[in-house]
Amino acid sequence: MNNKIEAAKKINVDYVAKLARISLVDDEKSLFQKQLEEIVGYVNDVASVKVDGVLPVTHSIEKNNVFRQDISIPGLDRDTVLKNAPLNDGQQFLVPKIV
Q: How far is 90 from 79, CA to CA, in rounded Å?
């Protein structure tokens, strides 16, 4: 466990701040160093949980396919839809070229 804590302390806050393109004062550096160590500690706690024999799941309760039936229904009538278009050629909408 001490190795994990030591690894957390090796996080270089100056380097992380440089990557984020932010400048930090010394108080902020020490605050963020402490927070990063806590975050890595939490991740290490999660990593130490024994999950042997636990199957990965997407739901906490067993669910099967919850989708509705795929039933084909008629769409809108083309002539009715094209009546609402400012420009059409009787088959499709016409739009100005934008290139």
A: 8
| Stated pTM of the model | 0.46
Domain count, the chain: 1
Measured over all CA atoms, what is the biggest interatomic distance in the chain, rounded to whole angstroms?
75
Question: Minimal CA–CA distance to 47: which of 15, 8, 18?
Answer: 8
Instruction: Tell me, yes or no, whether 91 lies in a domain.
Output: no
What share of the chain has pLDDT > 70, as a percent? 91
Mean pLDDT, all residues of the chain: 85
State how far the Cα of 7 lies from the Cα of 37, in Å rounded to an integer.
9
SS3 assignment, position 93: strand
pLDDT, one tens digit per residue, over 40-54 is 889 888 888 888 888
Structural domain containing residue 38: 2-47
In a domain, 8, yes or no: yes
Domain assignment of residue 35, yes or no: yes
